[in-house]
């Protein structure tokens, strides 16, 4: 009798343990599925953002500027039959000289030019390069920026392209708008204030929205990944200088 009771107790324990193992396995599987789903959703969100911003749509407007021992970035603002107009920061062009300074385009084409307008107060400079200096194939793929026609809001995504570090391996940085316009004492004017990674040499590069439209020009950043950019409305004044 005692033997039979002992058997039943052992069988009950074995069944309980088996049931517990099955429950834990099922629970673990559900948790794993939830984590996988969340990771898939994050990857899907990132893929959607990547698809929204196409590097190929803006790369043709990005340039690297070499001025004596300093380098920076810029954007093709206007592309005409006989002239390429490039906008950048004045502090990038302050070292410019017409003999030793030059611009490198995304396709490796290199050309010299001259400063045709500048505003130290707004930290904007404008370069002119004659298309006659380039072979026809060197001009292929170049294009001017597309200006945004929408009003930025807090939290909007923004993108910048680092072409200054390596022309052949441009790198895209994603950030967000903290304030579309904020007065910053360091610049004495309202700036586009955002958050993003960046690298030295990106001063003057374009700031783009998720659709690749130009919304401003990177001017400075901090160790806390805060960035300040000249707003598009200020840059539009360049058209009155050209």
From the structure above, extract its key features.
6-stranded antiparallel barrel, 7-stranded antiparallel sheet, 13 strands, 6 helices, alpha+beta, Thrombin, subunit H, 30% helix, 242 residues, single chain
Map the helices and strands.
Layout: H1 2-52, H2 55-59, E1 62-67, E2 70-79, E3 83-88, H3 90-93, E4 102-105, E5 110-111, E6 114-119, E7 124-130, H4 136-139, E8 157-162, E9 171-184, E10 189-196, E11 206-208, E12 214-221, E13 226-231, H5 232-235, H6 238-241
Antiparallel strand pairs: 1-2, 1-4, 2-3, 3-7, 4-5, 6-7, 8-9, 8-11, 9-10, 10-13, 11-12, 12-13
User: Roughly how many Å apart are the termini?
Assistant: 107 Å
Please give the CATH architecture of the largest domain: Beta Barrel
User: CATH first level of the largest domain: which class?
Assistant: Mainly Beta
Shape: globular
Find the count of extended strands (DSSP E, 2+ residues).
13
Helicity level? 25-40%
Stated plainly, the CATH topology of the largest domain is called Thrombin, subunit H
Low-confidence stretches: 21-25, 42-50
What is the CA-based Rg, rounded? 28 Å
Strand arrangement within the widest β-sheet reads: 5-4-1-2-3-7-6
Order of helices and strands: HHEEEHEEEEHEEEEEEHH
Number of domains: 2
- Counting DSSP H or I runs of 4 or more residues, the number of helices is 6
In CATH, the homologous superfamily of the largest domain goes by the name Trypsin-like serine proteases
Largest β-sheet summary: 7 strands, antiparallel
| Helix/strand structural class | alpha+beta
Determine the strand fraction and express it as a percent band.
35-45%
What do the pLDDT scores average to? 84
